Amino acid sequence: MAEGQGITDELKAMIGTMISEPGILEVERGAIRRYADAIDDLNLLYRDVEYAKKSGYGELICPPGFFGWPIKEGGAMKTLDTFGGPLDRAGFPRILDAGIEYEFFIPVRAGDILTAYTRVADITERAGRTGNMLIVTQESTYLNQNGDIVAKARSMLIGR
Amino acid sequence: MPKQLYYEDVEVGTELPLLIKKPTPQQLVKWAGASDDYYEIHYDKDFAQSTGLPGTIVHGRLKSSFLVQLLTDWTGDGGTVKKISVQHRGMDFPGEQITCRGTVTKKYVEGDEHIVECEIWTENPKGEKTAPGSAIVALPSRE
């Protein structure tokens, strides 16, 4: 496999930009339950509406890190599509998740509609054990329908 | 249901109860559907190997979700996860056990919140930390 070339002009041009229109995410009870099933997390706050009502949350809440279902923009496949081509052209054909940071401010409840603003914070090069790699860092801010910030995220992916 | 944990119940060095996961290939498919991540390295062995991986691997976000559960199971409904940070340093493979662990590193009162900071991580069957990280939670106080 050829060594990565480094940060191309195409990638440099993405830094600081919002790579898409703001995402709109609908938070549905069924999607919360399905997400909780996928983690195998039995927490009743994600599953049992009566329990959630008595708990003080009032409604099913999302496991922290779940922001509902994208109905406009967003999603992991969009991320792969956006960066896959440019990273491949730069000589880094493989993409891996490098990490995630979340800050949670307000619980996300079933019935919320979130807007997600995501920008490319940085693209840097790093030497690894098996060759150099690029790290793409994105920053997202999620607002609910009341205009309150519910969470912020900083996600890192590796191109190798 | 997890019993409620209070700020007074924890000390620096307190270990979080272990959370054991052993995601099957089917669970990775459930996760793909639930999280909208259909990247083939997680369920298509031929594709995964064509990218140089030994086989399909567990999604990073599923592992970070396991670590969130480690925290929420520990804190109970009255606790809140305020921040979490996870770095994916190693791969985990379906069919292998992932042990989620944590220890309390700091506790302090900030304004009207009782804050506890933890080191958290996932461990593979060899004891290697595949997803090290940290978290900050707020706990209720008995006072």
How would you portray this structure in words?
The complex is a heterodimer of chains A (160) and B (143). Chain A is an alpha+beta fold. Chain A has a domain at 9-26 and 68-159: Thiol Ester Dehydrase, Chain A. Helix content of chain A is 22%, strand content 36%. Chain A contains 4 helices and 6 strands. Chain A has a 6-stranded antiparallel sheet. In chain A, strand 5 (131-143) and strand 6 form a beta hairpin. Chain A is elongated and about 55 Å long. The model of chain A has no long low-confidence stretch (mean pLDDT 94). Chain B has a domain at 12-24 and 58-139: Thiol Ester Dehydrase, Chain A, CATH 3.10.129. The model of chain B has no long low-confidence stretch (mean pLDDT 96). In chain B, a hairpin with a 5-residue loop joins strand 4 (113-123) and strand 5. Chain B has a 5-stranded antiparallel sheet with strand order 1-3-4-5-2, covered by helices on one side. Chain B has 143 residues and is of the alpha+beta class. Classes of the chains: A alpha+beta (160), B alpha+beta (143). At the A-B interface, helix 2, helix 4 and strand 3 of A face helix 1, helix 3 and strand 2 of B.
